[in-house]
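If you are new to this repository, start here. Below is one unmodified record pulled from the training split, so you can see the exact layout before writing a loader.
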Amino acid sequence: MAKLKPGVLVKVIAGQFRGLTDNIHHLEPKKEKIYLAKATRKIYNKSPDIKKKSQLKDILVPLHISNVTAVRKEKQLKTKKEK
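And here is the target side for that same chain:
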């Protein structure tokens, strides 16, 4: 099994983002959580200042490491060019 580290391609096998394939953005080994760039949810960022407008903001959703599996990249077969 491949070790999980930032940049490794993984596929989500359980949960809300099932079927999503993406590279690991960052991880927290002690909490056993990983973050993927495509696994986000929107929150409404309310501004306490009246002059600033409130807006929607994307935040990364943590996923437990047991819900993902490492994906092997298919090796391309090199063929000899015939003259």
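Two things worth knowing about this chain: The first strand starts at residue 9 and ends at 12. The chain has one domain: 9-70.
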